[in-house]
Amino acid sequence: MTHIRTALTSITIALGITIVTLAAVAAGPSSLTEALSGRYSKHFVNGMVDGERYDSDDVVEIVPVAEDAAYIRASLQFANGHACDISGVAEAEKNQLVYREPVSQSLNGQQCVLRLSRVGSKLQLDDGAGSCHEMHCGMRGTLTWALPFESQRPIRYMARLKASSDYIAALKEWHAKQ
After folding, report:
1. How do residues 26-74 score in pLDDT, each as one tens digit?
2. What is the pLDDT of residues 119-142, one digit of tens each?
3. Torsion on CA atoms 103, 147, 170, 159, rounded to nearest 10
4. 108 contacts 131 by C-beta, under 8 angstroms
5. Diameter of the chain by CA atoms?
6. How wide is the angle at C-alpha 173 spanned by C-alphas 167 and 176, nearest 5°?
7. How far is the C-alpha of 152 from the C-alpha of 37, rounded, in Å?
8. Predicted TM-score of the model (pTM)
9. Is 7 helix (H, G, I), strand (E, B) or coil?
10. What is the rounded CA–CA span in Å between residue 117 and residue 97?
């Protein structure tokens, strides 16, 4: 009888641990930066005004640097070889990451504010008033854009990314604001 009670106690404890573990996994990432972290991409055929076609890739990278902040980099491609490129450290605000470029880097005193969030099945980038466009985009580019959320993948080149001049400059800029 004692063996049966011991076995039942062991099974009960094991089930309890399993339920707690499954609940933690089901709850998902513990922060917005974790939930959005990764590499998002879309491969597509782009074109020149003269009809020439070429392959392009839109890429957004999100790397947590703190529980409430993440390095973000967007490289978006548009017709005629125009592009938007931006990087910095965005901070979590409610359900979005918000990058605010230092006013000292703005044109005409208008601060670049870029918001990233999950909207349905998309990772949405929102340049709102177009404040980032002048500094970071070619004529046909925009930073109000979306990529499929299903394209989210782990970043497999993290050491190279963290050694990049974009990442180093972004962290330096962010630490200066702290």
Report:
1. 445 579 999 999 999 999 999 999 999 999 999 999 999 999 999 999 9
2. 999 999 999 888 898 899 988 899
3. 180
4. no
5. 86
6. 140
7. 8
8. 0.82
9. helix
10. 6
